[in-house]
# Entry
Amino acid sequence: MRFLYTLLLYLLLPYVLLRLLWRARRQRGYLEHVGERFGRYAQEAGGPLIWVHAVSVGETRAAEPLIQALRARHPRHRILLTHMTPTGRATGEALFAENATRCYLPYDYPGAVARFLGHFRPRVGILMETEVWPNLIHACRARGVPLYLVNARLSEKSFAGYRRFPRLARDSLAGFAAIAAQGEDDGRRLAALGAARVRVTGSIKFDVNPPPAQLELGRAWRRGFGESRPVLLAASTREGEESLLLDALARMEVPALLTLIVPRHPQRFDEVQHLLEGRGVRFQRRSANAAVGGDTRVVLGDSMGEMFAYYAACDVAFIGGSLLPLGGQNLIEACAAGKPVLIGPSTYNFADAAELAIQAGAAVQVRDTIGLAREAERLLRDPPAAQRMGAAGLAFCAMHRGATDRVLELIQL
# Structure
């Protein structure tokens, strides 16, 4: 099966290159460091390496407490942080600066994987969340590089996809030294696919601490907005959701309401600006770094690495990717910032966390834009209720901390 998988990869190589070019139309970063995607690197490997792979922004931010713990426990080792997207790489640079070597993980071609492992010679590999690459796993096993899948999650949708190729999935998962699953359901699905060494450790995302500098930046923004002005945040919105959000705002009767809209992907900043212009909404871009006027209705959050500042500046946070069937984005950061959370009906990417947050009274799930408008207006008009939800979010996060320590117990170095 791995042979057939590899053959298919080679047949798809022209499509892979065309997709890089296509994505570069909206994000020029995809044209940079192309050689790395095929296992050719200019960086010096240097000292013993602990390799952590985090695909994009969300995985990179989630890896922060684990990387900090690894650096503290193994001070003689350097961190090699690999990504698949330019935004993930930029996030890694913002979070870790010179404390980690950053590059792209190569595509799963045997030659590219061999060059990657031969160049960097990592002592151990740690893949974040849902990264299962058959040739990479096989090569690590052949070279004696222990490979771990941590903070692993597997939705019902992804589980059904892997079940279509049971032998390939089983052989790949068997190559991990151990798997740290986020929740019981994730662990059960992984075991059903053939994973033998699965432990439920919880989500590392609960161990992320809001950076004090960002919290202070957000509070400074809030003072600039006006302490009494209600502020709604739409965090990590996906394509199509901003239009639905504007429909919800039109239903709300909250005097002087200011809405912060932060698209999930930076290549969509201009697209959202055009939407606001087309709707005749008075807005400002965060990148303009100008005082927010009293007649401004929307601030377009076109900055990277400031999500906790946006949380600190708002009264209520809606988490994007959930109004449309996209699975939702991470709601834990909003809870960790002590903000009441609203989520839409689609949360399969964070099903366990969403369910637990709702049970804890830290989040409210809405069915559609009508429900979003109703619940947002209720919380914005009732600050004590919003504060109670925010406090419940802080308690919810505190209750589920500790996954990083449990993951470290699994990793043998």
Notes: Residues 212-399 form a domain with the Rossmann fold fold (CATH 3.40.50.2000). The two ends are 31 Å apart (CA to CA). The longest helix spans residues 57-73. The chain has a mean pLDDT of 95.
